[in-house]
């Protein structure tokens, strides 16, 4: 989908506050309400806007640990990668997972209540997933810039 300046303003505004009413959104992006509503619907139907959700402070809900686990799997067969992917999707502690290039196969973003909870999860769940050859954890000490949305204008 080709995005113009108005689409970019809409997307930036909705990433900042997904609860904006159509009236408030149209005023913020400089469109009248009907064209603004139509553009939002087009962006939803095209799959550019996939969902609306609240951003939570993980610490406020008791998740004090944020970590990234770099995982290497034994074999690079398609079936083993699919099995790993299937199993990782079932884990509530995993908030994001990426298949990556480089010296690891997957980068797994994990949250936990505390270090003991993370240790239990890593050793009794992640380490026991089939095909795990190696895993290395990096703990986040401070979130300098947590994910808040995509820079829409960079893609054009």
Automatic annotation (TrEMBL):
Residues 3-64 form the HTH asnC-type domain. Keywords: DNA-binding, Transcription, Transcription regulation. It holds the Pfam family AsnC_trans_reg. The keyword Phosphoprotein does not apply. PANTHER family: LEUCINE-RESPONSIVE REGULATORY PROTEIN (PTHR30154), TRANSCRIPTIONAL REGULATOR AZLB (PTHR30154:SF34). This is Lrp/AsnC family transcriptional regulator. It comes from Roseibium litorale. The lineage of its organism: Bacteria, Pseudomonadati, Pseudomonadota, Alphaproteobacteria, Hyphomicrobiales.
């Amino acid at each position: 989908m080709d995005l113009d300046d108005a689409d970019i303003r809409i997307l930036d505004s909705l990433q900042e506050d997904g609860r904006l009413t159509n009236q408030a959104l149209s005023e913020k992006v400089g469109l009248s309400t009907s064209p603004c509503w139509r553009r939002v619907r087009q962006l939803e139907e095209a799959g550019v806007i996939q969902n609306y959700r609240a951003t939570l402070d993980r610490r406020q809900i008791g998740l004090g640990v944020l970590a990234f686990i770099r995982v290497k799997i034994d074999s690079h067969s398609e079936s083993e990668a699919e099995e790993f992917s299937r199993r990782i999707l079932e884990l509530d502690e995993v908030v994001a997972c990426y298949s990556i290039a480089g010296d690891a196969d997957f980068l797994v973003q994990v949250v936990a209540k505390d270090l003991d909870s993370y240790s239990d999860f890593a050793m009794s769940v992640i380490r026991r997933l089939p095909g795990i050859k190696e895993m290395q954890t990096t703990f986040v000490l401070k979130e300098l810039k947590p994910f808040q949305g995509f820079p829409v204008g960079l893609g054009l």
